[in-house]
Structures are given as structure tokens and as C-alpha cells.
């Protein structure tokens, strides 16, 4: 335990005493810590231990990053990252992406170790910015805004969701230039996905994991309604204004919109909009039974957060019988750099990373050697490559959002 701060130190206290820690907070999902007014308003009443527990970030690992920032003081490098030194090395690689908050720090720790060993073996410098997924896609988009030639892109992208990867105004246009190649070597994916085909038949996109969406049912509020066990059930008028959705989690929310639209069309999206009660962060969703009023009956949330549900309480986790809608965690590797990029690709497709994703984050891994700890009946609902390649996904997301918002306005 450091004597610089402890679990009971407030965020404001830490950042006021050690302003060099602010970039550590902001790059790990504490976006409001970059704003002094927000720090003073919220940071004074929230302890470090409480905030890390809500974000499901390991305290000991995060403590190390804060101490590194404090000890470095005048070092302008983002100390949640490594491998960005400016030595006289022969080659450069640039790795950019968003990692789910629950697994970001352990993945970074492993990646930092890999970088050091790879640099010693090959004299290849790896610059990387792997931010918390809560930072949002705008940050990643800044890395490709104004880029017209694929050679100017970062060498490897990692992120969840469909938004940026298939949007013809974003990375989708570079796919048409044959800029990316799947070289993970995973000819057979994890048996958890035997009933769906996650492997890109065109060989552009790699998928290392998925974020599953499940239901959390407030049994006290359910009353005499039948237990919802499928996505069709969630659209039933019986749940009008009684469903909570992760609207702020764009990756998963858009995956839900796309899959509902594929099966149920605009009517399904409108029904989902009418049934929306409110948008909650997943850490709030598991406590929604404690709300004094307007309690949701159903909360749709990432599978990871179900482990925060108190046993014996009124909240029941349900894996949809027609399959958990998944938001894929994609990896895009630039074809022209594969000669020196391949070891990095192998790292992210490895059992080591797969174990972190599946066991620390409950994000099932595609690596065939990982035990995803799922039940045999836990299936998935996947948009499908034919559907992805035969539709303008960016335009379809915009259309679904418009239909959803219109239903909200009418239902208000």
C-alpha cells in the first residue's frame, strides 16, 4: 500500500495533489476528470476505491499506473501505455484501439511485457494508444479523420462494434482498397461459436472476442407477466416503458438495433423504443431494484455485469433463448506491414489474451483453446457476414436510430 494515496482518497484529492495523474484517469474511462469543474463537483465525493469498483478495474493494477505517473512527474508520455520511446530503431508500428474497461489494464500489462521482449528481439518500436472503450469512438476516429490513403492509417486497430469498421465514410472505404488481412491463423474458432460463422469469408476482419448482451429481470416488478426469455418477448407491449437499455454503450446498443431490425424490421425497432424506460450504465443496472420509482422490469446489459448481481436477491439474469446478441471485438491488421506486425497479431489472438478476455471480462474468446465457461445452451445471435457485406451498415445504424428516437418521441 502506497503512502501517496489509498482506497479512501477522493479523486479530487488525488488529482489536486498529483495533477500528473489526470491523464491516467481520463485514458481509463474517467472522462470527466479532464474537466476541472467536473473534478470539483464529483471528484470530492467519490473515493478511488469506490470508483474503481463501479468500473470493475483492479485496484492494485491501477495503483501502479498512478504511482508511475507521480514518479515520472514531468514525463509527458501517457503512462498507461508503454513502448513509445524515441530510440534509433529500424521500424515503427502504430497500434490504436478501444479496450473494454474490465480487461483493459490486465491486457495492457501483458502487452507492455510483449513490447519489451519484441523490441529486444527485433529492434521494432511499437507506439500504441489503447484507450478505455468508455472514451468512445470519436477518439479513434481522430486517428483516421482526413486520411485518404491506407498507408497513412495506424497499422492495427482493435475495437468493438460495427460503427466505425463498416461505415463507408470511415474504415469501410479502406477495406475496398484491400488494405487489411486476417492472419490470426485461427482456422477453427472456439466451439462456443459452432452454431454461427464468425470468420470473415473475405479474409479482411479478425475477431478476437465478443461482448454478449443478456437480460436482467427484476422479479418483484415482473408481477404476473410471463418471464421474458427471448428478444421477441422484450418487444411485447407488456413491457412498455419498463425496459432499460445501454443506449450510452454505442457498440452494444447498435448491435442490438441491427439484429432487431434484421429480424423484426422497423416495427421491432419502434417497439423497442416504446418499451424503453431509461438508459443506465451497466453498473447502475444491477442496482435498479433499489430505485424508489420507475423501476425497470428488464435491463439489457453486457454479460460481464451479471457477476455483480447479489445472489438471493430480486434480480435474475437470463440468457436469451434465441441467442445473446453480440457486439464483436474486431482486430484489423494492415496488409503492408504484416512482415513485422505478425507477432503483434499473434499476441492479441493468443491464449494469454483470450484468457483475460474470457475469464476476467466474461467476453467469450474466439481462441479455440479457451474455456469460455458457458453453458451448452448459451447461444448467440450474430448479424452474419452476408448481411454485413450486402448492406450499408453505417446508413442502417442511422436509420435504426431515427426509428428508435421517433418511437421515443411518440411515446413521451
UniProtKB/TrEMBL annotation:
GO terms for cellular component: outer membrane-bounded periplasmic space. GO terms for biological process: thiamine transport. Residues 6-62 form the DUF1858 domain. The keyword Signal applies. Keywords: Signal. One of its GO terms (molecular function) is thiamine binding. It holds the Pfam family SBP_bac_6. PANTHER family: ABC TRANSPORTER SUBSTRATE-BINDING PROTEIN (PTHR30006:SF2), THIAMINE-BINDING PERIPLASMIC PROTEIN-RELATED (PTHR30006). This is ABC transporter substrate-binding protein.
